Amino acid sequence: MTTVAVEPRPQPFEPRSIKRADYLNISYGVRSWLLTLDHKRIAILYLISISIFFFVGGVFAAVVRLELATPKGDLLQSDTYNKMFTLHGVVMLFFFLIPAIPATLGNFLVPLMIGAKDLAFPRLNLMSWYVFMIAGMFGIYTMLAGGVDTGWTFYTPLSPKYANSQVMTAALAALIAGFSSILTGLNFMVTIHKMRAPGLTWFRLPLFVWSQYATSLIQILGTPVLAVTILLVAAERMLHIGIFDPALGGDPVLFQHLFWFYSHPAVYIMILPAMGVISELVTTFAKKVIFGYSFIAFSSVAIAVLGFLVWGHHMFVSSQSPYAGLIFSFLSMLVAIPSAIKVFNWTATLWRGSVSWDTPMLYAFGFIGLFTIGGLTGLFLACLATDVHLTHTYFVVAHFHYIMVGGAIMAYLGGLHYWWPKITGRMYPEFWAKFAAIIIFVGFNLTFFPQFVLGYQGMPRRYHEYPAEFQVLNVMSTAGASILAVGYIIPAVYFIWSMKYAKVAGRNPWGATGLEWSTTSPPPADNFEKTPIVSLPPYIYSKEEATVVP
Amino acid sequence: MSPSATHTHDEHALVAHHFENLEQQRGANLLGMWLFLSSEVLFFGGIFTAYAMMRFSSTNNGFALGSSQLNAVVGGINTAVLLTSSLTMALAVWAAQTKHRRLLQLFLSLTLAFGLAFLVFKGFEWYHEYEVSLVPGPTFGSKLAEKGDGTVIPAETVKTMQMFFVFYFSITGLHALHMVVGLAVLAVQLVLCLQSDFGVRDYGPIEVFGLYWHFVDVVWIYVFPLLYLMRA
User: In chain B, which residue's Cα lies nearest the Cα of A181?
Assistant: First the structure.
């Protein structure tokens, strides 16, 4: 299969001979990028930065998996191992997953999807990228100056008192990255409220926009709590005064409460935009109106709101009161409902759809399956009794990687493939893309499924040595990780290649609905030749649907 | 909204290219500030929650004793100063909306003066607390005995008092930082008002800044009783 079958698409390919001014070729030079106010260019700046961080975080993961290939601690000292998994967590969470979909795809698409010329605050948008890069500098300094070994959670009293590594700069990196996240969320929320095209009512918004809206809510209301908590940890570490150190009369569990008040909702910052992407992919590649539009829209908001009420499930084995634990357990179960609503609605959308198997859809299928596994295993951990057995084991590691990697990254890659023609004006090579998608799916499952078993059997997380009986499953996991790494490198290569050599895409290569497909690819600097006027709900693929849907 | 229906020629120069009209631009700016302030509520909310938890879980009266060390009179005067600055800020917004340029300049200057006065009082308070060894650290409370009526405060209570002062300096410090940022923006706006018809041409920026200033004031309304008035 060397040639890619070109199926007749609704829109013919436009000849490239007519040179139009688009956002990419309207101006040239480093200055025109570093001082740009165009949301599309800022999205590209983010895309480049977070891709670099993704590969850095991936290297740390590779070192961790390499160490765990054998039961003995033969590659790393335990100290170094602690730094490796900490840096992996800090980089992947604060510098890749949290900005991944909102700051790249969201930044690019929200104004396009609502028919606006730009985000409401273009300068703030550029500033958020610079703030992010300053945070990145702190992160890189942390790595070069010896790393940090507290785990990404910075638990007290380890982080302010006992850790001898670069805790301060790592925590500051997280704090500053948080501000960038607040600015992005704020910008999106105002844009979605105030900048919608004429006729684009709330219930005509694409579901991706709804999910970005719910995400912004968490970014705005959750992140500041992390900020003030980090400031208190910093004061404690620098001035030796504080409120988290028992020796000074403080309470370390208070830190956990404040930390998870942000960091649990932060999980939804990572997964909600991913769900938005999947809603778009499923309807486009089933050529069918989404099933239960308002249920999906409101379930995003429900997840954002309920997400603020479940942080205590990270603390079942702390000194938290068992009654609080009971309530947190119950509320955590509740979050499963809106998540399940989405999964069922996506599946129902496929029913009697004309489903095509383009690469983005492969990722969407991958997401639905893996997210379901990740979500259901989350219920094991939300349940008080089972959590006592499973907490701090590889079961937890497997669970959140199914959500973060199997969910968020799958959707991110699916979305990147889906909108790549819009972003660059060119397709990606379909064969290699499918190949990579399958490699990633296989590699991912081989890496993380054994970890469920390991955790159930009692292997604790965050140790560089383990009893020999766990080796077979660990070797499987390490082998899977190397396959996964190949799967991630392939798209990096062909995406770069495609920008110059791949087939020109045209306005709407997928025959999708949605305002972003009505403009040229790549879009002009102002997005639309003239402000679009919307008269229909989204995802109308046939005349019958146009009459059935209100 | 109908594009260009509300466009007048004058307005056009004030509207950034990505907005349809001035109304949309103003609405966006105001909503942006409200959202930022809701974020700030959670920022201060985090530390207030920590304060509440530590205060109610402590087993001695260190928090109340710590509060008694503060000068509620100076704190009260400062509260009045800050509330008055909010009044002058509200008047400044009114002056901008009704295009009274002189009044706008006057009220912004007054707001700036009251804000600076607040920080000066606060600075003297902090200096005093430093002098009587109330700054948390190894020497905390070393001069407490000189001042009191001869009764010795138990070591555990001193530790809780120190906890109170960690909160006191963190909260008032963060509040003062917000004041400094506010005053810097205010100073820029004042200079622009003195030099040009900034503010009366479009009252949007003054109105948006006014929201921020009132917010900093509202935070203090919570800080003052929490720190100064819940005393032994």
Answer: B39
Q: pLDDT by residue (tens digit) across A117-126?
A: 999 999 999 9
**Residue A453 token pair:** 């078993």
Give the list of residues 6+ apart from residue B62 with CB closer than 8 angstroms, or none: B156, B157, B158, B159, B160, B161, B162, B163, B164
pLDDT digit string, tens, across residues B141-198: 888 776 556 678 888 899 999 999 999 999 999 999 999 999 999 999 999 999 999 9
Has residue B5 got a pLDDT over 60? no
**In whole angstroms, what is the distance from residue A522 CA to residue A426 CA?**
8
Contact state of A249 with B162 under an 8 Å Cβ cutoff? yes
Spatial distance between the Cα atoms of A476 and A466, rounded to a whole number of angstroms: 15
Q: Which CATH fold topology does B17-229 show?
A: Four Helix Bundle (Hemerythrin (Met), subunit A) (1.20.120)
Partner-chain residue, chosen from A190, A191, A232, that has the shortest CB–CB distance to B170: A232
Q: Counting beta carbons within 10 angstroms of the beta carbon of residue A157, is it exposed (0 to 12), middle (13 to 18) or buried (19 or more)?
A: buried
Q: Cβ–Cβ of A250/B163 closer than 8 Å?
A: yes
- Give the integer Cα–Cα distance in Å for A197 and B21: 13
Does B28 contact A189 at a Cβ distance shorter than 8 Å? no
Coil, helix or strand for A125?
A: helix
Asked if A241 and B49 come within 8 Å (Cβ–Cβ), the reply is no
b (16+ CB within 10 A) / e for B41-71:
ebbbbbbbbbbebbbeebebbbbbbbbebbe
Q: What is the 3-state secondary structure (H, E, C) of A79-101?
A: HHHHHHHHHHHHHHHHHHHHHHH
B163 close contact with A: CB closer than 8 A: yes
Measure the CA–CA gap between B13 and B26, rounded to whole angstroms.
Answer: 14
Inter-helix orientation angle A167-194/A78-90, to 10°:
10
List, for residues A25-40, the tens digit of each pLDDT value: 999 999 999 999 999 9
Which tens digits make up the pLDDT trace of A508-521?
999 999 999 999 99
B45 touches chain A (CB under 8 A): yes
Query: Which homologous superfamily does the CATH classification assign to the domain defined by A36-548?
Result: Cytochrome c oxidase-like, subunit I domain (1.20.210.10)
Q: Compute the distance between CA of residue A348 and CA of residue A355 in angstroms, rounded to an integer.
A: 12
